[in-house]
Amino acid sequence: MESQLKTELGEDLWRACTEGHLEDMEFIISQHKSTDSSYKPPLSSVMKAATLRDKANIVSYCLKQGAIVTEPLMNSLVSAGSFQTHKVLVESGAVDIDYYIPWFGTVLAVAAPAGNYEWTEYCLEKGANANFDRVDEYKTVLAATAENGRIDVVGLLLDHGATLNSSGAIVLAAETGEKEVVSLLLDRGADIHEIGVADPTDPRVTEYMGSALHKAVEGGHKDVVELLLERGADVNLQDVKGRTPLDLAKEVKMPDMVGLLENHSVR
Prior knowledge:
CATH class of the domain at 164-267: Mainly Alpha
Keywords: ANK repeat, Repeat
Oligomer: single chain
Helix content: 55-70%
Protein name: Ankyrin repeat-containing domain protein
Largest sheet: 2 strands, antiparallel
CATH architecture of the domain at 164-267: Alpha Horseshoe
Pfam family, one: Ank_2
Number of helices: 18
CATH superfamily of the domain at 164-267: Ankyrin repeat-containing domain
ANK repeats: 137-169, 165-197, 208-240
Order of helices and strands: HHHHHHHHHEEHHHHHHHHH
Strand order of the largest sheet: 1-2
Number of strands: 2
């Protein structure tokens, strides 16, 4: 993409756009117009180049000149992590805070799981939907963030109205061994026996649904298993295939986990 833009814009205009030199860019455009009265600056490409380097001043200029926000531009924005550009687009009214980008979802759905606290906070304060579902993976923003262990952002989402139970957050956090996140979710009222969220687009996912304890056992996360047992997880709870956590521990041949669960079962 960058090489195509650079070829289209030319070396000088590309450099001015990507380095945020507004006066240089305006001078280059005026030079083109002086030699060709019909010349029209390629605002769409200029704005995309600036977005790739998060040069919000150039993006603001383009918007004032009538440039339109497109899906490819928003793809570039989230791929490049262009927070300042996003702020300009939102505050100018060029895009809604919940603008949906195919595959990525909303900007919040990208910023939160990546652990970008400042960007997540900005989106939420501007009214972003904290309960958006990432359609490509069928995960809530909260679940995807918990899965990645972004504990500070998980707390931020919960503070801004993210629904905890039936979100899949505690199951995914346990599956990836994020003990501190699991503990936080339990402290905030998570259902310790939730068995995750079914994916209506892929029935195969349902076959592997189970509780946080099932997933922690399956992943070999002994510290998370111990935490869940201490917090009251039911060792006899069955997953969708009718297996208990102990059954899973035996299946994956984890003697330490088997012993831990058996000892807890006889208490």
